[in-house]
Structures are given as structure tokens and as C-alpha cells.
Design a protein that fits this description.
About 30% of the residues lie in helices and about 30% in strands. By secondary structure, the chain is an alpha/beta fold.
């Protein structure tokens, strides 16, 4: 088991966003959480990765975590390549591994030609490719994706699923959170978050 949450609850004032959330993620599985905008999906992910604390409950994680937030955390005046260097240092990846992995991601998601471009000059779709690539850079055991394919064209969308399926075969546990899920057949388990309850 890569991840387990027990009785997670979170409120903002009188608004109970999450109520007694319990679920687990096993190695080599893809799990989806669907729910309307504002249902608390992003809050749940932030608790899972440790950006936000729960009011009660426990979270167990095992292995390296990759997190692709809904809003890309990118530096507008750094280039794509500089982002790979920056996050490689943060992850503790050596230069050789960083170059090998970043080259693989640039080619797989078809944006090698933008390697020397500053983020401020990139389209939203290309920025999202980098946002996803940063989460994949250190080959995580647990991959957390919040609306990961927003802004992707059809080709990139297919490339996303190809890469995700490769990770699954390698034993990665993947959690995809979205308000719209059209690829149900690709997932091993689907939860719905409604009124703070995960079903």
C-alpha cells in the first residue's frame, strides 16, 4: 500500500468541506476522484501532499510523491530548462539523471523546442506540460494529479494517458482528481466527493 487516509475532516468556519474521508491507494493502480467545482477536491489533495493540515484524521504515505497542482507553480522569467534544473536540486536528483529524465519528458510531451523559452512566453497548454513534467521528474511512487490535462490538445491528452499507463505498470499509485472524467475504463477505482463525503 502506497497511501492510506483515515477519518480526514476539514472545516472553514461553519462550512464542513471534508467529513470523515477514508480511502487507500495501492501500488500499480489508477484512482479517480470526481466532484463538482468547489466540492473540496483540491483541499483534499493539499492535505494529502502536506500543503494544508486536516482538522482531524491521519494520512500515511510511502515513497516519493509527485504533485501536479491545478494551478501551475512556475516562475515566469525562468526558462523551461531552468525549471528542470531548479526542481532537480529540490528533489535531490543528480545532473545526469536530471538531464536524462527531462529529455525524456520533453520528447514524450512534444515540447522540446520550448526548452530555452521563458514561461511568460508559453501558452497555457505548454505551461501545463511543464507543470506535469515537474511532478514526474523524480519518478514518484505516488502521483497526485489535480485536473492534470486542462489546456491539453488531443495529442497531448493521449500522450498523458500513455505515460500514466507506463507508470502504472512500473508500480506507481496514481490519483487523478477532476470535475469531469470521460476515461472511466482507464481507472481501477472511482470515488465521488459530494457534500464533504467520499463515496
Amino acid at each position: 500500500m502506497i497511501f492510506n487516509s483515515e477519518h480526514i475532516a476539514k472545516s472553514f468556519g461553519r462550512n464542513k468541506v471534508l467529513k470523515d474521508i477514508c480511502f487507500k491507494l495501492d501500488a500499480g493502480t489508477i484512482t479517480g476522484i470526481v466532484g463538482e467545482n468547489g466540492s473540496g477536491k483540491s483541499v483534499l489533495l493539499e492535505i494529502i501532499v502536506g500543503v494544508r493540515s486536516a482538522d482531524k484524521g491521519t494520512v500515511y504515505k510511502n515513497g516519493r510523491i509527485g504533485y501536479c497542482p491545478q494551478r501551475a507553480i512556475l516562475f515566469p522569467h525562468l526558462t523551461v530548462q531552468e525549471h528542470f534544473i531548479y526542481f532537480s536540486v529540490a528533489y535531490g536528483i543528480d545532473k545526469e539523471q536530471s538531464k536524462r529524465q527531462s529529455e525524456e519528458l520533453l520528447h514524450h510531451f512534444n515540447y522540446k523546442k520550448y526548452e530555452q523559452e521563458k514561461i511568460i512566453n508559453l501558452s497555457g497548454g505548454t505551461q501545463q506540460k511543464l507543470n506535469l513534467s515537474i511532478a514526474l521528474l523524480h519518478k514518484p511512487d505516488l502521483l497526485i494529479l489535480d485536473e492534470p490535462y486542462n489546456g491539453f490538445d488531443w495529442d497531448t491528452y493521449q500522450r498523458f494517458w500513455d505515460y500514466t499507463n507506463q507508470l502504472k505498470k512500473q508500480g506507481c499509485a496514481i490519483l487523478i482528481v477532476t470535475h469531469l472524467l470521460s476515461e472511466k475504463k482507464r481507472l481501477d477505482r472511482i470515488y465521488e466527493l459530494e457534500n464533504g463525503i467520499l463515496v
